[in-house]
Amino acid sequence: SEKRSLNFIEEIVEEDIRNGKNGGKVFTRFPPEPNGYLHIGHAKSICLNFGLAQEYGGQTNLRFDDTNPVTEETEYVESIKADVKWLGFTWANELYASDYFDLLYAFALNLIQKGLAYVDDSSPEEIAAQKGTPTEPGTPKQYRSRSVEENERLFKEMHDGKYPDGAKVLRAKADLASPNMHMRDPLMYRIKHAHHHRTGNKWCIYPMYDFAHGQSDSIENITHSLCTLEFIPHRELYNWFIEKLEIFPSQQYEFARLNITYTVMSKRKLLQLVNQKFVSGWDDPRMPTISGLRRRGYTAASIRDFCDRIGVAKRENLIDYSLLEFCIREELNKTAWRRMAVLDPVKVVITNYPEGQEEMLHGKNNPEAEGGEGSRDIPFSRELYIEREDFMENAPKKFFRLGPGLMVRLKNAYIIQCEDFVKDENGQITEIRCSYIPESKSGQDTSGINVKGTIHWVSVPHAKTAEVRLYDRLFTAEDMGSAEGNFEDLINPQSLTAVTAFIEPDLTQAEIGRGYQFIRKGYFCLDPDSTSGNLVFNRTVTLKDTWAK
Ligand code: ATP
Ligand code: MG
Ligand code: MG
């Protein structure tokens, strides 16, 4: 198969391998903070990290970045593991940054002993003021010149719970004059008397991101630590800690985060949508979460394909939601089983089909697949439902469906011709009367009649009902990147429409996880809300891109 060109990270890796760096090893990690469900942006990072290790014979750790005790929950840990597995990846080790708390504490003492860290009693405001501005250097306070012994004693007391939250912090003694504000004596530890989902009440001091992430990478011998662009200014500090601690030299590389039109891509904002009930939960089919996309009918392969197509770049950009839809449509066109469902029904009576008679017709499950993957039975009778939009009283010339005198083929069945129709007092069509051509049965048509249009239908006495949920974009604004807080004004009121549809009886056998094409209506999947008496289908995507400009 044709190989695409290398992305910039693969180029770095290949260069490192050529130079024998790290013994040619490629160890990566995916480091989610367990404070929400994974979204499609995380899928990009997952595909990148796991894909790179697979490509170069390495391995990938799943590391929960659980250094913040307040926002983290076990429910999130479980959902993250399930989603990574579902996407098709296997981690070498399941690890938790909190497992390194003892080691990180020892690292901090090591820096104190080297005179490279000190305990500061200043308030957050005082510390911010001390740091100066990007154009003016910071000003040291007396705490910066505390002795090693005093720092050691105070830090141990912080650890032992002697001080309340916020009373003291541990800071790196780096460079108060650095042009990089992150180097101006950044915080390493803060006091937080809080319960942690794994370590319980053992700790009342917690390391900051900058003093946990790089150290965790190093402990795990991660060779290529991939993160998003906003961490570029953290890289200098990442390297500084590793150098001063004299530990394994992991290296950080940054790539552009994924942004998609008409949606938000941040756990904080997604949590807000859940909490304020704009959606039914993290797995609402309108959510850009992995669990939402799965429930919507997306497959793991389609998401991996999407991540492959968007590639890895060094510049932020906004990807069109239609590309995601393109990827699932491509797959479902090849795999979905064809079925018939009428979403907006009007009744057709076949006047020359004997009353009380019925017959069993057949339709291939998947005409795109070799052998059609078998077929299903489709009952036919004198009364059918068709889509209301497939009939026009005054049809224009190129309307190849039903109207007075017009002929159309019923999918997998016969050609019919409209003879008459019935309207109620409001002018609404209530019944269309047709005759059928007995010799025109699909597969054995000897009628010699050619019709241009084919429409779907469901036999009235055999029809089952289902709730069908039709989705549209969650937001009305294309670029939601800077949207904060007030989602009310930006939510698309048409993002979910539910209709009761008539479905062919075979659809009562539908299975969760399988894609169905409701002929002419789009790709659908069974929703877990379904019960045997009340089926629910989600529209995954329409058959064609209705958003093309
Ligand atoms: P969020 O803002 O959604 O909370 P985060 O970066 O804080 O995202 P983490 O749990 O820390 O979430 O993310 C785990 C990994 O996934 C990180 O390496 C992060 O860079 C990456 N990641 C998160 N969002 C995106 C995105 N939109 N595109 C690409 N990678 C992402
Ligand atoms: Mg993070
Ligand atoms: Mg975050």
Automatic annotation (TrEMBL):
State the Gene Ontology BP annotations: glutaminyl-tRNA aminoacylation; glutamyl-tRNA aminoacylation
Provide this UniProt record's keywords sorted from A to Z: Aminoacyl-tRNA synthetase, ATP-binding, Cytoplasm, Ligase, Nucleotide-binding, Protein biosynthesis
* Residues reported to bind ATP: 33-35, 39-45, 228, 257-258, 265-267
Q: Which residues bind L-glutamine?
A: 65, 209
Domain Glutamyl/glutaminyl-tRNA synthetase class Ib catalytic, chain residue ranges per copy? 25-333
Entry's localization field: Cytoplasm
Which residue intervals make up region (Disordered)? 127-147
Do you know which Pfam families this protein is assigned to?
A: tRNA-synt_1c (PF00749), tRNA-synt_1c_C (PF03950), tRNA-synt_1c_C2 (PF20974)
Every copy of the Glutamyl/glutaminyl-tRNA synthetase class Ib anti-codon binding domain together lies at 336-436
Question: Where does motif 'HIGH' region map?
Answer: 32-42
Enzyme Commission numbers on file:
6.1.1.18
CDD domains cross-referenced by the UniProt entry: GlnRS_core
Matches recorded under PROSITE patterns: AA_TRNA_LIGASE_I (PS00178)
Task: Identify the stretch annotated as signal peptide in this record.
Answer: none
* Gene Ontology MF: a single term: glutamine-tRNA ligase activity
A single Gene Ontology CC annotation of this entry is: cytosol
**Highest taxon, organism lineage:** Bacteria
Q: Which family does it belong to?
A: Belongs to the class-I aminoacyl-tRNA synthetase family.
Assembly description: Monomer.
* Name of the protein described by the UniProt record: Glutamine--tRNA ligase
Q: Which organism is it from?
A: Mucilaginibacter arboris
Per the UniProt record, the lineage of the source organism begins with: Bacteria, Pseudomonadati, Bacteroidota, Sphingobacteriia, Sphingobacteriales
